[in-house]
């Protein structure tokens, strides 16, 4: 726990600074009301109405996020393996070759189904 | 401030290890935390000035030279200006998340810097302590985790702004950052295979002296910095460094020609925007510091200086660290001055289709070499496995190449056929023109009128 305490100290410093900056921002500058200024910026045209609670967004981004999770989990498996590699010996190497080959199958599938393409 | 212990000089240890952490009294911790905080604040001010000045010189102009000597106070002036600007909160935004997003962006950026080793054990006000805020068994993973938390800030900033540019910018930016984070995480594995730890101080210690390798009866000394030993890992990391921090040539989130300001469009030039900009610069410093720690020997002196006995003890290493940091940051600026922005689909394709398979293949190679270095391993098994993997990779590559070749030929044939068809068509006059009987579009308010009748 002592290893994580310094991070907490830094978090208090950085968090305090950030909250302070956001909190005083409305008071340090001038205030000149203008209706157009409070619209969302769309290069001068009338802003597109946005649905409450957020609109839709391209499915592509969700697929990217899911693929990210798949490969992030692979990384999580790779790190302890890399650290304990010398102790694991040949067994570790064989296991990792099998694991990466398994992930490659999924990777090839996604690639083939154009999950990695961006059009 | 410091008294160098003679015993320390004599022993010249490889550097602090995990066991040296977690023993500081609270006030030393606070001093270190304040130091890192102030260092990053001033670093951002200096970094902005330095980048502008250097890029100006590369583009044959002066850059900022009005505020202070050499324009050194330019960033301070800009910061003050941002504080004195009107803070506009657009009417449509989600007020809570809109204010929270810059905080979520900037705090993890600062925290990621807490595991960066600045130097070895020093005497600070009578306390023997490492020049590093903290270290843990999962230090490098912690940096990746903080980078991931920062993505929340980007997404929420875009989402809460309720503006098409902001939401597209936020989504794009987060998709880019997570894609390059995978390649970044994979590029570290080679380092961990050699260092055998995720703790940053121990990775620096592992680069103190290169090991030896027996190769056909010869004893070869391996170089001590991982950048030499694991150059493909470093090159991949260097690319992901740019992608992760949204810098040129991967600065698509701010592609002003298409997205105005990306996820920060709705943040007026007030202190909130200053926080976002600060988070970006701090992230650049963090990835630079990480590249130094993992690949450039951390705070250890480079070769000619390292011949001097006192180079790696006391407070000197901090100087080497800062010099390396400025050099890596200059490389960022150099790249910014040299390269144009790349297209988004190319960026994603490069991250997913090139960097990840390359990385996995390289990890397997490094692991095989490591397995051969451990003497009690059965060499025959390792060689067989290596042969199987090599044949597998070659088979995949061969198959891949044939498929690519076939697709290219198909595409060429298709274009050829279409061209021939259009040339034969008398109506098109031999050129591809849109058909003349397309309906005209007069806006949603009016009824569709078939062409020819108006």
From TrEMBL, chain A:
UniProt GO molecular function: NADH dehydrogenase (quinone) (non-electrogenic) activity; NADH dehydrogenase (ubiquinone) activity; quinone binding
Membrane-protein topology: Multi-pass membrane protein
Subcellular location field: Cell membrane; Membrane
Keywords: Cell membrane, Membrane, NAD, Quinone, Translocase, Transmembrane, Transmembrane helix, Transport
E.C. number(s) listed in UniProt: 7.1.1.-
Reactions accelerated catalytically: a quinone + NADH + 5 H(+)(in) = a quinol + NAD(+) + 4 H(+)(out)
RNA-binding keyword on record: no
Cross-referenced InterPro entries: NAD(P)H_OxRDtase_bac/plastid, NADH_UbQ/plastoQ_OxRdtase_su3, NDAH_ubi_oxred_su3_sf
Principal localisation: membrane
Gene Ontology CC terms, in alphabetical order: NADH dehydrogenase complex; plasma membrane
Ranges that cross the membrane: 6-27, 61-82, 88-110
Subunit composition and interactions: NDH-1 is composed of 14 different subunits. Subunits NuoA, H, J, K, L, M, N constitute the membrane sector of the complex.
NCBIfam families associated with the record: PRK07928.1 (NF005922)
Annotated family: Belongs to the complex I subunit 3 family.
Its biological purpose: NDH-1 shuttles electrons from NADH, via FMN and iron-sulfur (Fe-S) centers, to quinones in the respiratory chain. The immediate electron acceptor for the enzyme in this species is believed to be a menaquinone. Couples the redox reaction to proton translocation (for every two electrons transferred, four hydrogen ions are translocated across the cytoplasmic membrane), and thus conserves the redox energy in a proton gradient.
PANTHER family, per the entry: NADH-QUINONE OXIDOREDUCTASE SUBUNIT A (PTHR11058:SF22), NADH-UBIQUINONE OXIDOREDUCTASE CHAIN 3 (PTHR11058)
Protein name, as recorded: NADH-quinone oxidoreductase subunit A
Name of the encoding gene: nuoA
UniProtKB/TrEMBL annotation, chain B:
Any GO BP: aerobic respiration
Keyword Transmembrane helix: yes
Biased composition, class Basic and acidic residues, residue ranges: 445-454
Region spans: Disordered: 426-454
Chief location bin: membrane
Gene Ontology CC entries for this record: plasma membrane
Secretion signal span: none
The keyword Transmembrane belongs to this UniProt entry's keyword annotation: yes
Protein name stated in the entry: NADH-quinone oxidoreductase subunit H
InterPro entries assigned: NADH_UbQ_OxRdtase_su1/FPO, NADH_UbQ_OxRdtase_su1_CS
GO molecular function, one term: NADH dehydrogenase activity
TM ranges: 29-50, 96-118, 138-159, 180-205, 225-243, 273-295, 315-335, 347-368, 380-398
Family of the protein in this entry: Belongs to the complex I subunit 1 family.
Assembly and interaction partners: NDH-1 is composed of 14 different subunits. Subunits NuoA, H, J, K, L, M, N constitute the membrane sector of the complex.
Key words of the record: Cell membrane, Membrane, NAD, Quinone, Translocase, Transmembrane, Transmembrane helix, Ubiquinone
Catalytically driven reaction(s): a quinone + NADH + 5 H(+)(in) = a quinol + NAD(+) + 4 H(+)(out)
UniProt topology in membrane: Multi-pass membrane protein
Location of this chain's protein in the cell: Cell membrane; Membrane
PANTHER family for this protein: NADH DEHYDROGENASE SUBUNIT 1, NADH-UBIQUINONE OXIDOREDUCTASE CHAIN 1
EC number: 7.1.1.-
Function per UniProt: NDH-1 shuttles electrons from NADH, via FMN and iron-sulfur (Fe-S) centers, to quinones in the respiratory chain. The immediate electron acceptor for the enzyme in this species is believed to be ubiquinone. Couples the redox reaction to proton translocation (for every two electrons transferred, four hydrogen ions are translocated across the cytoplasmic membrane), and thus conserves the redox energy in a proton gradient. This subunit may bind ubiquinone.
